[in-house]
Amino acid sequence: MIVPDSLYGACLLSLIDFFLSIVMITGIGFVLAAFPLMNRLGKLDDETIRKTSH
């Protein structure tokens, strides 16, 4: 699809850019929200660290 070099084309590119930025920001939000969940799954306490280090 070729976007015309006009005001319509500029508005179309702005709308596409807006929606893609929303998708990217949402994706980054999901990744950041997953970090605490991964932290709970891979939790290590001091006892297990001491047992494995000796």
Radius of gyration: 23 Å
| Large-scale geometry | rod-shaped
Compute the number of helices: 2
Unreliable stretches covering 5 or more consecutive residues: none
Relative helix content: over 70%
What keywords describe this structure?
54 residues; mainly alpha; 0% strand; rod-shaped
Can you give a write-up of this model?
This protein is mostly helical. It is 80% helix and 0% strand. It has 2 helices and no strands. The model has no long low-confidence stretch (mean pLDDT 86).
Break the fold down into its secondary structure elements and pairings.
Blueprint: H1 7-41, H2 46-53
Short description:
This protein is an all-alpha fold.
